[in-house]
Write a structure and sequence with these properties.
Elements (H helix, E strand, L loop, with lengths): L10 E4 L8 H11 L4 E3 L9 E6 L8 E6 L4 E5 L4 H4 L8 H13 L3 E5 L1 H8 L10 E6 L6 H11 L7 E6 L5 E3 H4 L5 E6 L2 E6 L7
Parallel strand pairs: 7-8
Antiparallel strand pairs: 1-2, 1-5, 2-3, 3-4, 6-7, 8-9, 9-10, 10-11
Length: 208
């Protein structure tokens, strides 16, 4: 069993033997047995089981499936992959957006991870990305930048439309804010915690 505390978007690897004998249990066990992870869902502070999701590939009859397993079933967990580690799985039309992200990552000393369809396609080799897929990024390190650099980095990151770049800025306490929300000058923003989203004061007092 892993000892690291859960975090939103974690990849969670489960021991296949913890699944039962129903048809869906057998599918979940086969997935886990192939070495593929599930994803951490929102989880109450006093949860008695690990809340997981299974984003399934294109063509599956049910694209998302939520379930829970005992905490002892979790073998280990990891953060989503770095964008650079799964970029080869992206469609050719995403090249410009990827290059822009890599340039900004280096220029501002950021750490850019990816979740959503590109992450799952890169992790499994199965088809997840389609014509309307977003590029979903988790950007670590934005909260440590000066205001002007932060605004410039986010504005350049989400520029363009092929694909639409979406995602979250990860804060020092491991909560997160939508990249577009992070740019707002409003005093309150929707902060996303493991236990669920809450409207809170902007952690940086706004970007103005």
């Amino acid at each position: 069993m892993t000892s690291r505390s859960p975090q939103r978007h974690d990849l969670v690897f489960v021991d296949p033997k913890f699944f039962g004998g129903t048809p869906m249990d057998r599918e979940l066990a086969a997935w886990a047995g192939a070495g593929f992870p599930f994803v951490q869902r929102m989880q109450p502070r006093q949860a008695v089981a690990c809340q997981l999701g299974w984003p399934r590939p294109l063509g599956a009859p049910q694209r998302r499936f939520g379930f829970s397993v005992p905490f002892d079933a979790v073998v280990w967990r990891s953060r989503p992959p770095r964008l650079r580690d799964v970029a080869a799985a992206a469609p050719d039309g995403w090249t410009q957006a990827l290059r822009r992200a890599f340039t900004l990552e280096q220029a501002f000393n950021l750490r850019i991870r990816v979740y959503g369809s590109l992450a799952w396609q890169g992790l499994t080799g199965l088809r997840y990305v389609h014509a309307n897929s977003d590029l979903d990024l988790l950007v670590e390190g934005l909260h440590g930048l000066a205001s002007g650099d932060r605004q410039a980095a986010i504005s350049r990151l989400i520029a363009g439309s092929t694909p639409r770049v979406d995602g979250e800025a990860v804060l020092a306490d491991r909560a997160a804010i939508s990249l577009r929300e992070f740019l707002k000058e409003s005093s309150q923003v929707l902060v996303r915690h493991l236990q669920g989203p809450r409207l809170e004061p902007h952690p940086l007092g706004g970007i103005a």
